[in-house]
Structure formats: structure tokens, C-alpha cells
Design goal:
The complex is a heterodimer.
Chain A (H helix, E strand, L loop, with lengths): L1 H15 L2 E10 L8 E9 L3 E6 L5 H8 L7 E6 L9 H7 L2 E4 L11 H6 L8 H5 L5 H13 L15 H14 L4 E5 L7 H17 L3 E6 L2 H7 L2 E6 L2 E9 L2 E4 L7 H13 L1
Parallel strand pairs in A: 3-7, 3-8, 5-6, 6-7
Antiparallel strand pairs in A: 1-2, 1-4, 8-9, 9-10
Chain B lengths: L1 H22 L3 H7 L1 H12 L4 H34 L6 H16 L2 H12 L3 H25 L3 H8 L5 H35 L8 H9 L3 H45 L1
Helix pairs in contact in B: 3-11, 4-5, 4-7, 4-9, 4-11, 5-7, 6-7, 7-9, 8-9, 9-11, 10-11
The chains are: A alpha/beta, B mainly alpha.
Chain lengths: 276, 265
Amino acid sequence: MEKKSLNDSQNFSFILTKKIIQMNDVWTSYDSKSYALEGVNLSIDRGTNYAIVGQSGSGKSTLLKLLNGMMVSSKGTIKVDYLTPNTNDKKFKKMMHTIGYIPQNLGLIKNSTVLQNVLIGALPRLNKIQSLFNKFPEDEINEAKKIISQVGLKGKENRKAYMLSGGEKRRVAIARALMQKPHILLADEIVSELDHVTSREIMDLVADAQKRMNLTAVMVHHDMQLALEYANRVAVIKEGNKILEIGVEGDTIVDFQTGDMTTDEIMEMYSSESKK
Amino acid sequence: MNQKNNLIIGVIIALLVVASYNVDANPIEFVEGLPNLGIVAEELVQVDPKYVPTALWAMFETIQMAFIGTVVGVAISLPLSLFAARNLNSKFVYAPMRAILAAIRTFPSILWAILFVIMVGLGPFAGVLAIIMYTIGFVAKLQYESIETIDSDPVDAVSSIGVSKWQLIRYVVIPESAPHLLSQFLYMFDYNVRQTSILGLVGAGGIGFYIINYIKFFEYGKAAIFMIVVLITVLAIDWASVKIRDKYIIKSQHGQEVSIKTKSK
């Protein structure tokens, strides 16, 4: 039932438009005094690897949380696959099952094993009573083991999460999200604390899964270089505003926001912004 | 400032003197009474060694009572603590639950024991019930406090998948607060052995029953043997629970430390 409606909406949207995420003039605030986002417009195509770059406190994590309903906007409209993110809405709650979300601190269960952490991604598909007794169907367990070996953790299924290294923890969080059989993957600065080599490994892993499963990935980054390396599109957020939206086409960086900036101008603007 | 301090110290001393007079607390009597301990020691060496096995058996009964009380008490307190945690329930659920738990905690275990002696009669069962009640009040509080302080990241991450509340409790809340539970269990068992040792004073079984009766009949030597057994047992359990805690709980706390470190980088 759930699967059918999801497929229906996907087919429907392919006919009409390929936009999967749309934000129109979105404002949010944590308190009455200041806004975290100030009128952001965003539109993301299905199957894109989309990056959001900005300094800390620019509002980029907030933007991500708006997309899976963990936060609500105070003004403006947000549509994720034609639904407004709202955890009280039954339709959206069902869709949440297929939105993978990896928070900045990953949110792994420290005292549970790698396998148990990954199986959590399957919970929404399970019979509620069955799941309370930790009874996972054999095929879900096999699926989890398959994903664990895909993310390079074969043989570590029974290791407790707290015993893993930083890179391995990220692999578990990615595996948990993939276990959801997601159509959208949201990830919040998941490689920002890693060394150069490990962060590329993790990004390769996500990029690979994104292509294989035709996911729409929205990833928040601190590092512009990394974002340009992996994403089709990069939005730059500053103080709650989207100041730039760029993409790489061949050797050049194209300005999608205003359409009239050259690669050099964009890089100059970004490097001066990041120095501030 | 200094004058104010002097005044406070003066008031405290004055209150101490007045209170001591009221309760008849006389340091001279204490010093004069010290040689009486000699009588106990003298009687102790004269006691027939055949009482030692009785004392050990009584202690064993006490430990069993404490064990049942702790296991059953912790088992009951777990679900109650889930309803008392602020981060899992609405005010209308947690507020009454907390009120009930606070009411249970108001009674010290010896008062519960008196109540249960009236209900089910003299003997260890009344003591077990008293320990259960005390454990519920105490562990449920410790447990809901540790549930309220669990890391919000896993809760956010897993609830964003759209799981049910009970799945969230089963797969996030309980595993995240489990290391505290083992430590609370050990602490409570340790504490309950000491408590159960005195419940016999009101006829609720255990080694205290022997102690109070020997004292009533001025058999201080025999009472002392039983008290020494209590002392040694409590020390042994204390030592063992420290060992277990070191082995199993420090490990998982180390895990917490690691994750905190990566966060703050």
C-alpha cells in the first residue's frame, strides 16, 4: 500500500516536473528576535547530488531539518515530493520512512552493535509488535548485512558502535540510512571532522549509493572544494540567505543564481566570503 | 564579612548546644560508656562457635531477601520510569507518575516493613515486600533521570525515520540508558543488603531479627557475632560490586567519552 502510493507520486511527478524539493521564500526562527533563514528559495531536481555550503551558524543545518519535518518554517512554502514536511501529517510521516537523515553527530546507538544500528533503518517496514521483541525477518537481516559489507564494514557486524573509529561510525550511519531504502538522503556535515583521505572515502561511498539507487542527496558541507568535487549543484548560504548557486559543467563553474558571473568571479566571491 | 561569618558560626554553636540539651546528648556519657564496649568484646570471645553457622545462614537469608527485592523492584521500576520521563510523555502522564513515585519514596524501608508485617504477618516476606517498594521509589527516580539525560542525537536521528514511540524506546532509549541500569542495580543491591539487615528489627525477617532479640536479652556477645557477619558481608559485596562496575561499566563510559571527544573537535 505504502509502496504503491510512493511509486504513484514518483510517476506523477516525472510527468509534471522533475523537481523533488522546492522552497519558496522560507523563513525560520529559533526565537522571536532573529531569523535562522531569511527568505530562502531553492529547487532541487530528482536524482541530484546537491550540496549546501556555508559557515557555522549560517542556517544550513536548519535548512536540512526543514526538509524532513524536524523543524517547521515560520513563513513560506516547502514541498518535498508534493508534500509539506510536517511530522503530524500521516502522509508525510509515511514518506519520512524513505528520507534518510544523518545528523552532524550521526546519532548512533553507542551500546548497540553495528548490525542493530543498521537494522533500525528497517523499523518502519516492520510489524510493530514483532519489532518490539527484536524479531527482524531473515531477509531484512540479510539486507542489512549486504549493506554493511557495501559500506566496507564486513566482519564488524557485531562490534559495538562506541568501539568504532570516526570513519567507521560514519559508514554505519550511512548504512542505516540506506537500510531505509531511501529516495532522499539528507546528510549534515558528515565528513567535516575527518582527514582528507577518509572524508573522500566516505564521500565516494555516498556518491556511489546516490548513483546506484538514483537518490536525491542533499548534503551540508563546510568545505567548498569538497562540495564542488562531488555535487552537481552547490548552494552557498550566508546568514540565512542563499547568496550563490553554482554547478560544475566541464571545466567551468556556472552561476545558476544570476547567470552572469564567471568562474573566477564566483571563486573570488566565495574565497572573500569565507575569509570574513 | 568576617563579622557575619562569626555570627553564623555563633548561631550554629548555640543551636547545637540547645539541641544537644533537648535530646540529652552528653559527650561525657559517651566517654564514660566506652568501657562498656569491653564487656561486648569479653562476651564475644566467650560465645560458643556453634552460633557462627546460624549467623551465616541468617545472613544468607538476608542476601536472598535483598536479591529478590532488588530484582523485582528494578523490574517494576523500569516501565514506571518510562512513564515518568519528561522527554517521552505529556505532562498528564509524567506528573501523576512522579507524584506516586515521590509518595513511595517518602516512606523509609523500615516503615514499609511495619506496614507489610501488618498485612502479611511476621517473617521475611514482609521484608521482601518492603525492599521492593523502596527499590521502586528509588530506582524509578534514578532511571527516569538517566532517561531524561540521554543524548538527543540518536533520538532525533531515529525519530526522523518515522518510527513509533515504542520502537524509539525499545531501540534508542533503553539501550542508551542501559549502562546506568546495571550500575543502579549493583548500587541498589548493595544498599538493600544493608537495609534488609535491619528490617528484622520490626519482625520482617533477616539477620536483624536475631540481633534485636539478642540485644533484648542482653546477650551482647551473640549480637556482636551477627553484627560482625553483617559487616564482613557488606564489605565483600561492596568490593565485588566495585569490581563488576569497573569491568563492565567503565568500558561503556569510555565509549561515551570517545563519542564526546569526536563531537567537540
